[in-house]
Records
---
Amino acid sequence: MEVTDALAVQGENPGLEAFLSKLQPLLDGGRLDNLVDLASLLSDLVDLLDAAMVEKLSVQFEQATALSWNLGNAIRQATAQTRQDSEPPGLYGLLALLREADTRRGCALVLRTLNALGRQL
Amino acid sequence: MAKHILIVGGGVGGTMLANQLVGKLYPEILRDQVRITLLSNSPDHYYKPAFMYVAFDLFFQEELKRPERTLLRPEIDFQVQEVTRFDFTGQTVHTRSGRRMGYDFLVVATGCVPAPERIEGLAQGGDHFYQYEPARQLARRLASIEKGRIFITVTFPQTPNVPHQCGIAPVETTLMLDDYLRRRGVRDKVEIIYTYPTTAQLLRNCLFLQRPTGEILPGLFAQKNIRFQRGFTLGKVDPDQRIAYSEEGDAQPYDILMATPPIRAVDAVLESGVSQAANQEGWLPTNHETLQVYGLEGLYVIGDTVDLPVSKAGGACHNQAPVIADNIAGEIRLGKTVAVYDGKVQAAAQMGLNAGMPLTYDYRHDVLPTPPTKLGGLLRNGFNRGLYWAVARGML
């Protein structure tokens, strides 16, 4: 059925008429099919989503955001502290940073991270 | 001397607000002009809406908690301390370990506690899903019932126009229960009766505390053969005979009593003497726009401890936190509050085991219910399993 046939019912629904006339160029160029197929694909993706899939996606989301947030926070705080030094630390100054318990915890974390990376090779 | 912002309570309100304050006041934090401390009585943060799922064996305890420290920006001084006394005029808090902490700004984020002992027989005879162990007890009962009556009651605080925790939860759990019992194959032998008290905030003799949602419930319940009764204000429970008595003079037998219990503020808030609430409930007198506590300097309240008519739920904290963050920043930088809370609450209600219904309301508009959908249910599931933690961190 031609869209213009539907438009022949004049004055029944001006909003619908405006919408249909906007679609007309897509129809003429054979491009409306793509949009319908896209809608169909989205519908298929929604059908594929179930509680288990959503759980997997959500857990991945949380892990990715928590990691980037964690790293970003750490770098932001470290940047703020390092900017305050008028001179960069010397070699002994760098070693002195290791006196802080949290810094040593962070070093242990990095070493253990390397360990886990090695295990995955 | 750095201005000290102290947040007491490590639930979703306190956690998201602390993170937002760090972001908002970062320049002052960098210059040591502001410092932020969060005190919680627990090292762990619990996603409390998951307890409702625990009652249906749908959530493990390990999945619904995270260490609070991992949810807080490093600039926040987080300490596991239980506050035992608030000295609001002296702007000091006292902790169980004997410490005293002064503050320039305090945010009370201590939430509320279920108080089933306030109804005779309820603690022994009833079940609820608002804490982990009670939800586990309810789960054991729901998993084994083969026939009988599950009787659902809802108790509101006696302070006028104050809701119970999470207004939609009784409807959610009733619909989840229906799906759950069908799945177990025993629904035809187990009767479900949903009741609502005579007074529900500003409404009377209704099935829900807002009219539009209340109006769709009869149709929804009838479709699923869920019986319902208005005007049942739980007054007393006989745990041996298993009978629930109403203030209106009714007596109803039950095999399982799924009761939203009375609630109150935590002891330290109750004992501060600032509350104007009825019945020793302890809600703090809250400016509904700025979220300051009336009559006290530098004092704000977020979440369940307010005496406002909006839901005691994370969906309210979510919109209160940015207002409080802006107001504290406004007071520090401009000497005045700058933001106003419009009462907005949003959530995705779990309307049955798989269907969900996003909802939103505020001081001037009620929830307009829409048909629950599979996608709505998946959104809720996604929130439970991942999005929530981004919200707690102040990211969403």
---
Amino acid sequence: MPDDSIPELGGYDDAALDRAFALLTTDLERAAGSLDGADAVEQFRLEWLGRKHGRLKTVSDAWLKTAPAAARRPLGQRFNSLKERIENLLTDSAAGKHRVSIGAAIDVTLPGTRPQPGAEHPILRTWHEAVRIFASIGYSVATGPEVETDYYNFESLNFPPNHPARDTQDTLVVAGQERKPLRDRLLMRTHTSPVQIRTMEQQPPPIRLVIPGKVHRNDAADATHSPIFHQLEGLCVDEGITFSDLKGTLDYAMKAFFGSSVKTRFFPSFFPFTEPSADVQISCIFCGGKGCRKCKHSGWIELLGCGMVDPSVFGFVREKQPAYDPEKISGFAFGMGLDRIAMMKYGVSDIGLLYSGDVRFLEQFA
Amino acid sequence: MNVLSSWLRSYLPTVAATDRQLADDLTLRGIAVEGIFDVSAPVGGSLYETDITTNRVDAMNHYGVAREAAAIYGLTLAPLDTTLPAAKSGAGHPVRIEAPDACGRFTARILRGVNIGPSQGIVAERFAALGQKLILNAVDASNYVLFGMGHPTHAFDLDKIAGAILVRRARPGEKLKTLDGVDRVLDVDDVVVADEKQALGLAGVMGGWDTMITPETKNILVEAAWFDPAVVRRMSRRHGIHSDASHRFERGADFHAPPVASALVSQLILSNGGHIEGELVDVVIPQVLARVAARRPIAFSVSRCAQLLGRTSEGPGITDEVATGVLRALGCALEQTGEGRYAVKLPSWRLDLEREIDLVEEVARVYGYNGFANTLPSFSGTVLELPHAPKGAALRELLLAAGYHEAISSTFCSATDAATFAAQPGVAVAMDNPLSEEAGMLRPSLLPGMLTMLAHNLNRNVDDVRLFEMGTVFTGSPERVDEAQGLAFGATGRLRDGLHSARSVDFYDLKGLVEALTGRFVSRSVYYDAFPPESGLLPRWLNPARAARCVIDGSTIGYFGELHPDESDRRKLRQPVFIGEIYLDRLFRQSLRQPTARELSRYQPVRRDFSLVFPDTLHWEAVGSALASLQIPELQEYRPAEIFRDPKGKAVPAGHYSMLVSTTFQSPDRTLRDEDLHSWSNSIVTALESLGGKLRA
């Protein structure tokens, strides 16, 4: 039994005991630091708890058995806590010994199994975002049929029969309509505006409404045109609604959509169902207005059409809802292409991708 | 339309703004300048590419744009110089308007001894700058005046006209070779400019071949007329001719312009020699004059205008001075009728102005839209969602979480697909002018689009696809088209990526999806059933061996399963595809399930497994209902944990399968005793054996 396996005990007073046990603890912790592998653990166990030559046995033999009665208790307490610490260290390493197998270690550089959530369609993502933005300033949601009558799609929106304005909206027509009066003929709605009329016929003012939906035109498909596309229509009718309200509303919405630094500007346009009518541009979201390829170096991007509801539109509605008296109420309407906004916002260069179901395209939006 | 800034400035020499500033100012007032290009000498200045809305035919020429600029800058626009050399004596050419509904005014002027040749000088230079083709001076003169002040005119070779000019309806079967070289058979609704023998031109649309100006022409008749917009539009559409003339006439030309245009054209032609014979013949139909050029004044109220337009960013807003200044600058004559009230006489070149609101727009436009403030109207109502929005959102969230990408497909499908996928035969609706043959029908189902999208991916070697679409389906007849909301989903290939634990999509993935989707709704009963192939009850697009119907509270909610191999072959799909469709209008009749929490038991659950061999004819549904009918409250869960068939028929006899039924017992208020478990196990075994099951050793 080598005497140097434990420190020399200078006496049985507390200070001496503390000093001696501190040295033992230091040794213990140092040894515990290299407990890797079963052999090392066994070596450690033998060194400290070995029945014949373990250090605790030595301490017990050398110190405990010769201690004066008064020192037994403080010595015993220190002895027991040291023993407990050793056992804990062994338990911890034993736990590790059973669960960790170095041989079965994994290659952490292999790719993980990713969750594969589905992706929102960029148009519908834009749709829902627009609905949320307008809901925050009091706009409810409405929808309407995709197959419309000529009356709702054109006539009640102040597109008279044979009017040149109809030329701008090449129409897909349902078969077998020739014998009907023009106003009853069925067609694919060319815009979401018919829902304005349908809603006003259903309910008196005030109205604050957005109308998202699918629309169709008989257009040749190219990178920026699709015969199928989506619009979001807005309608606000109340007493005292002004053109500056229209400006403020769309300025708010565009800032909510594209960020507070976006500026809007309005300039005259023509729609049969609004007057005054305006086109709205926003400052280019790509270059901030300095001019770039995306905005054709103008610093502005044309985004939507709008205007004050034409009194003759109220005239059509009044047949069913007399409260729409243009002498008493006024309103504005606006319409934006959701495809176009989505394409701009997400950098989509070909509108056809939006209707292809191509997973390589869609999964980018997950 | 292209506009030369130098030409524009020739009408308004005092404009101080640079070309770029002028372009901006015009754009913000509705004359959208979309491109600016430098123009070299001798013309100089800039070329504006403009886009002018269809209602503003008055601004589709240089003088009209100059009028806008004058209004913007508060300048005075000088009238056009129409002085002509004195006419030599003569009677003028006889003109008769026999179709007064179509032609409100017709002027004819005779020019004799003209020299026909290439255009020179400013006409040639400006045409070159505009990229406009030169023809012969007399023809170019007509086009030049069109670009200059906007009114269409026509020059005839006078020597080829037989007798008086008649403006009349075409005769049945009458023929005319137009300037574009096309021989046309006319309609009785067509209006022609004719002589006493034949039609010479389509009124307001295009001149005729036989009387056109040639280098040999010596004498000319200059036509400047006013034709009815609707009549010209019908002719233009009927004959498929969209000419500069028809474009302007069908949008409403200036009734007072013909004499001016005639003078300007004559000036140009005469500048190369020749003289006028006789006075201008000018036939006017008084009723048309009254209707379009002597319209009744419009009552205009400045306060109403200001009220509708709202606040301006700066200054006192829309004052009397602002409003009347704008209207006068645009050519309106104002007579005050009261405090801030005016009777506004409209200029003959603005047929688009008809009502007070049109004047309000003019005031806003010229004031500048961006001069108005941004205000938000106050609001104190409620915001309503669509009634089904939360239900749609719940389904969408679940589908996205399940790894299905949201897609949008065509609204149309082929007649074949319509027949295959419509819920009932003959309900699909055809299109009159389909986008293509494959898009001849309104889709009666979302599945053709879904399959097209799946095929699109497979054809591009994208093999693992999961998609869904929520959209409208259409049924009905030409009389009435019904729209319903549907949900389609499709899946093919592997679930997860291939490295760690991939497996192919199967029927049960779709069933699980449908269970999860329908599980979001409250229902009293849900069941799934299959139909034998010979029953004819299953949709023909499904493989009867791997397909099911989902029924909730007695109503068929949808069908799903593997695509029928015939349909798969027809579409050349090279791997199994699973698809399904849910009728949302039916599913949405159920209410959304509101989650409610139950107490969690503090007592240990106990699991007991039973391994039995069943004949193949026995389905899980029978096993499940047998266990349910035992009515053991502590039987918290039972499920098929493992199913095994032995192809060799050794471990399990042929025509049978073994199933491990896993059960879990738990009580909310006590620890389960062995006797309980023993007795329950016995009743379970007895119940399953009575179904024909045999307990495995």
